[in-house]
Design brief:
Radius of gyration: 24 Å
Structural class: alpha+beta
Shape: elongated
Order of helices and strands: EEHHEEEEHEEHEEHEEHHEEEEHEEEH
Number of helices: 9
Strand content: 25-35%
Distance between the termini: 82 Å
């Protein structure tokens, strides 16, 4: 006799949280669900496990790196078609320039105006697009799906190199050593800076005293400082080459950030600076001393291009565990060149 209730084939989707976020947001983002209600129903129905334990509260905040598994139930023919269409969409609709790609690392050009990543699944971000693309490539090429993790975050109104990796441990190693990697940024300013030279790192006391003034108004300044605080910018712990500070204490050495002028015109100057975006705060006092303002950075700065005049154009990354080295570069943004021609 035919069983009127045949056993249902279960399909378990397992992933690690890309960032700290509510459980419903993580499930919706990973499964590409069309609504938060669908992810909440899965969780409340007991279909979601966190580190092996069933969790039924959709609003619980899940720490980054936590393993989440979802029992998506039987996969129907319609469901297969929908998933296949989603895979094709992810593979075909990656809208950004791919700068580098190998099995472990993926780098793309993050344009100004796009959010890098967000815990809100309704927000379309460069990371979700990169994640969809990479998972689609895994599916198309018959490879097991691997986790996707962002390494760096770039503020919405800034452009530059976005780095994504397929291994959580690699991500941690890169982030821990981020301040040691060589990096370069294009900085677009209004004013007349010296053609070539170098900026010096600010002392910690200077950062506390001048942080709000550097990054504009109170509300925007707080936001900007958080985005620029991605790296540990305490500097080298070697003794100060200039000697002891007040009271005879040894002061940490200041880092130097060489720069040169790339192009100028119409009262604006494009600088090529040997610093990462996270170190831009350190060059602001030097720019102010020359009467220069970074485009779009702060209430008093001009903003003729509708974005901030900062662009990460070069990264040199290394990982000793993998014995690997990556060098990624981009071109000058077109809007920068248009302004200084």
């Amino acid at each position: 006799m035919k069983n009127p209730h045949p056993p249902v084939e279960r399909h378990i989707e397992t992933f690690k949280a890309d960032l700290e976020a509510p459980l419903h947001a993580l499930v919706r983002s990973y499964l590409r669900l069309s609504s938060t209600t669908k992810s909440r129903n899965l969780i409340k129905g007991g279909a979601v496990r966190v580190d092996g334990h069933v969790l039924k509260n959709p609003s619980d905040v899940i720490p980054e790196g936590t393993e989440v598994s979802v029992d998506t139930g039987a996969r129907t023919e319609k469901g297969d078609d929908t998933r296949e269409a989603s895979v094709r969409k992810g593979a075909e609709n990656f809208p950004f320039d791919i700068l580098y790609e190998d099995p472990d690392m993926f780098c793309y050009l993050k344009p100004a105006g796009w959010v890098s990543a967000s815990p809100n699944p309704r927000v379309d971000t460069t990371f979700t697009r990169a994640k969809d693309y990479l998972l689609a490539q895994d599916s198309i090429n018959g490879r097991p799906a691997r986790d996707v993790h962002f390494v760096n975050l770039i503020e919405k109104e800034i452009s530059g190199i976005g780095v994504v990796v397929r291994d959580m441990n690699l991500r941690k190693r890169l982030q821990e050593n981020w301040s040691r990697f060589n990096a370069g940024s294009y900085v677009l300013v209004q004013g007349n800076p010296e053609p070539d030279g170098e900026f010096s790192e600010r002392r910690e006391s200077d950062r506390r005293d001048n942080g709000r003034r550097d990054f504009g108004d109170k509300k925007g300044g707080d936001r900007d400082r958080r985005s620029f605080d991605h790296r540990d910018d305490r500097g080298d712990e070697r003794g100060d080459e200039r000697g002891e500070g007040r009271g005879g204490e040894r002061r940490a050495a200041l880092r130097k950030f060489p720069y040169r002028t790339m192009r100028s015109g119409s009262g604006y100057v494009l600088l090529k600076v040997n610093c990462a975006l996270e170190d831009v705060r350190n060059i602001l006092p030097g720019l102010r001393s020359m009467g220069c303002l970074v485009i779009g950075l702060g209430d008093n700065a001009p903003n003729p291009i509708g974005r901030k005049g900062l662009h990460s154009f070069s990264l040199e990354l290394e990982d000793e565990v993998m014995d690997a080295r990556w060098e990624i570069k981009t071109r000058v943004p077109k809007e920068f060149l248009t302004l200084v021609r």
